[in-house]
Write a structure and sequence with these properties.
Layout: H1 4-7, H2 25-38, H3 44-60, H4 64-67, H5 71-80, E1 101-103, H6 105-111, E2 127-140, E3 145-158, E4 164-171, E5 181-185, E6 196-206, E7 209-214, H7 221-230, E8 234-235, E9 246-249
Helix pairs in contact: 2-3
Amino acid sequence: MPTDLHISVAAQAMLDSVAVPAVPFAAIRERVIARRESARWPGARLHRRRAIAAALAVAALPTAAFAIVSYEARSRVALQQQGGWAPPSAPAALMPELRPKVVTLAQAQSDAGFSLVEPTGLPAGTSLMRIELSPVGLYDRSSRTWRVGPREVVFRYERGNSRTFEIVAQRYDDRNVPGRYVFEDVGPDSNGNPVPHRYERFAWRSGNQMTVVTAGSAISEKEILELARSMSGTMLTLSWPSPHSHGTLRILAPK
């Protein structure tokens, strides 16, 4: 089962596009000509050769070389190719405001900001590890800014063989229903490239609460649908690519 650390960035996670700067041929040519015209010292010929060689090296590089400069950048491209996107790194000043608190059910119900419905219909052999309450970081694609979003409640469960899964409860907002898929990078492969693995999400509405669960090795699609029925939830249609305009960031509480 993927963890938030892998998925939320998930990867909440996938850029709209990767800007590729154009090769500055004109500027390089001007520098080479200027160097040639102003050379009045013995090393000028060597420097001219180096400048021309540099220009040829730049021209010979594939366009993608300018965009794919790190493993993180390659991960973003790989996720983009799956139809998703990832927000840029959040500013350091935002991080302390997103730290979760481990709370009791009563505290979660009091502070969530919506009518919290406790999960029912859990699979056999499931035990509650903890409940977390925290705000979510939201990235607005139109303004390209981060801000502190609404609170959410995360129920973390454990099953046999140390398998874990989570149930996320948040206030329902039809403007920001999550996308159908999340991805975990299980790379690198033998060539050092990212390997995005796709997991399907399911969401339903109970009153003013939206519940979101990701299927994986610890909980199946069938078990998730049983959860939704037990909670009298109305299933939501999750689209892909997601039509919504926000990226999210979540921080895990210590185990």
